[in-house]
């Protein structure tokens, strides 16, 4: 499908990350995870839930940058991060990477399993959320190349081991984490795909963006979505600057907002 041409914006200077930014990218989610486990161990499950939410949100950003190799580490470091995220988010990030990169090749097109979730009504995207998680992972497991399928199977074995441990050794923290990640994976299609692609034109502006500074900070820059689609190699660290350039040189691309 033919899309509008990319706007002429300088972006290659935004590929470089400082050591501090790389360290942030690698560590972003883990304090939230540790905090949620600590509170769950104390029996404060309601207090642990917001921390689990922010863990999943930050882990989603880490995985997203890893899919595009923009974490600031090499190939080996990227693969280690994806395995770590698969074992804690309890989804196959390697399988999802395949589906997500297809989403970038054909955004909202016929072959876009991920993006076409935005065609549903809001209640459908929420109600059938578990199906979205299964479909996006199954596509990578079924259609990815040999390396993708092998690494995806590794993810599945890791996830199965965690689930089995939660059944055979039902420690409260482990059971809490498994249940919260199952819930998170059930709604990720609504928040990470439907919200940023709903009502968009596959042959025009095919993604939304956001300009509320507090909201972008609270969502780890994941709502700068049209910017990400236009220049997917730019790390999330630099998406605010990319958004400023887009507003100045091609504001029509930022007309559709998430909220």
Structure report:
- With 259 residues, the chain is an all-alpha fold.
- The protein is 64% helix and 0% strand.
- The protein has one domain.
- It has twelve helices and no strands.
Please summarize what this structure is.
The chain has 259 residues and is an all-alpha fold.
Shape label: globular
The low-pLDDT segments are: none
Counting helices, strands and paired strands, the structural category is mainly alpha
User: How would a crystallographer describe the biggest sheet?
Assistant: none
What count of helical segments does DSSP give? 12
Number of individual domains: 1
Whole-number mean pLDDT: 95
Q: What level of helicity do the residues show?
A: 55-70%
How much β-strand is present in the residues? under 5%
- The end-to-end span amounts to 27 Å
What is the secondary structure topology, with strand pairs?
Blueprint: H1 19-27, H2 30-41, H3 45-67, H4 75-89, H5 93-105, H6 122-127, H7 129-143, H8 146-168, H9 172-197, H10 213-218, H11 225-230, H12 239-249
Helix pairs in contact: 2-3, 2-9, 3-4, 3-9, 4-8, 5-7, 5-8, 7-8, 7-9
Based on the model shown, name its key terms.
259 residues, mainly alpha
């Amino acid at each position: 499908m033919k899309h509008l041409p990319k706007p002429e914006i300088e972006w290659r200077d935004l590929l470089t990350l400082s050591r501090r930014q790389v360290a942030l990218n690698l560590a972003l989610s883990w304090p939230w995870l540790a905090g949620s486990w600590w509170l769950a161990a104390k029996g404060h499950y309601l207090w642990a839930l917001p921390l689990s939410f922010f863990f999943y949100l930050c882990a989603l950003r880490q995985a997203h940058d890893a899919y595009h190799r923009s974490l600031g580490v090499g190939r080996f470091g990227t693969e280690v991060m994806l395995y770590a995220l698969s074992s804690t988010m309890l989804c196959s990030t390697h399988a999802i990477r395949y589906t997500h990169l297809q989403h970038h090749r054909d955004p909202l097109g016929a072959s876009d399993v991920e993006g076409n979730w935005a065609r549903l009504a809001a209640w459908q995207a929420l109600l059938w959320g578990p199906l979205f998680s299964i479909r996006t992972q199954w596509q990578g497991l079924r259609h990815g190349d040999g390396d993708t399928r092998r690494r995806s199977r590794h993810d599945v074995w890791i996830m199965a081991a965690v689930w089995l441990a939660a059944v055979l050794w039902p420690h409260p923290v482990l059971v809490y984490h498994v249940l919260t990640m199952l819930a998170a994976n059930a709604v990720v299609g609504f928040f990470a795909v439907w919200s940023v692609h709903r009502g968009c034109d596959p042959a025009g502006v095919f993604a939304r963006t956001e300009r509320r500074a507090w909201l972008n900070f609270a969502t780890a820059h994941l709502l700068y979505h049209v910017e990400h689609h236009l220049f997917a190699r730019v790390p999330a660290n630099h998406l605010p600057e990319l958004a400023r350039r887009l507003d100045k040189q091609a504001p029509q691309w930022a007309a559709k907002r998430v909220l």
